[in-house]
Amino acid sequence: MGLMSGKRGIVFGVANEMSIAWGIAQQLKEHGAEMAFTYLNGSLEKRVRPLAEQLGSSIILPCDVSKDEDIEAVFEELRKEWGSIDFVVHAVAFADREDLKRPFSQTSRDGFKLAMDISAYSLVAVTRCAIPLMNEGGSVLTLTYLGAQRAVPNYNVMGVAKAALEASVRYLASELGEQQIRVNAISAGPIRTLAASGIANFRTKIKLMDDFAPLRRTVTQEEVGKSATYLLSDLASGVTGEVHYVDAGFSTVVSA
After folding, report:
1. Could you report the per-residue pLDDT of 40-84, keeping only the tens digit for each?
2. Which of 155, 171, 230, 245 is flagged as catalytic?
């Protein structure tokens, strides 16, 4: 019996086999979870569907998290198929590449709105639709980064969006605790993913991890997946409203 045996949930944000969301999904499957997956568009469906099918998933749905009707349709399908769910993995973030390149003071108004909508508000929208299906409690998990707490070079508007995301985790956790719905975040260190390719000088961040992190390396998708499995499982039944750092100890050094 695995930690997630008998539990069903949905994973938002798998883009390819390098995605942190994919590392999480693999670990959840290894521990017995049944999962549904979403994809943004036809191009991403070609990548996501084969991965989801590897894990035995038969529920693979389109969803643009900037559209409430898309999110509502996803959870209505889950209601029809399963009746209830136990967990949600929210691994969605986006900022315009040009806004990431500019100094933060030059962030465009539209770019700021876009980053906040996709990277922060979408957690609220997804959780709102998940609540009615978590009639026996549940767990919601999202992904953040150290740039929410400190000014990280080139992270810019995404850092502000992640700060809003972390605040949203706390408010959702406070509100939903009485319903036994837990809401947490994982703050992973820099990992080579499709999303990370949009951040300037990303290789420098990797080098800093190798030089200064206590473990002298970056973490892997698998390691983030293991922590996610803990937070989504009953082992973490008393944990909510927390940011769980999985960054080879780097945040400890930075804050020292």
Report:
1. 999 999 999 999 999 999 999 999 999 999 999 999 999 999 999
2. 155
Q: How far apart are CA 3 and CA 154, in angstroms?
A: 38
Residue 206 pLDDT class (50, 70, 90 cuts):
low
Q: Beginning with the edge strand found earlier in the chain, give each strand of the sheet holding 34-39 in spatial order.
A: 60-62, 34-39, 8-12, 87-90, 138-144, 181-188, 243-246
Using CA atoms, how far residue 16 sits from 21, 31, 227, in Å, is: 9, 21, 20
Whether the predicted pLDDT of 194 surpasses 60: no
Pairing of β 243-246 and β 181-188: parallel
Distances (CA, A) of 25 to 52, 54, 80, 91, 215: 9, 11, 22, 11, 25
For residues 238-253, average pLDDT = 86
* Interhelix angle 122-130/156-176, nearest 10 degrees: 30
**Catalytic site includes residue 121:** no
- Kindly name the residue from 39, 145, 230, 245 that is annotated as catalytic: 145
Q: Is 155 a catalytic residue?
A: yes
Q: Considering the chain, what percentage of its residues have pLDDT values greater than 70? A: 91
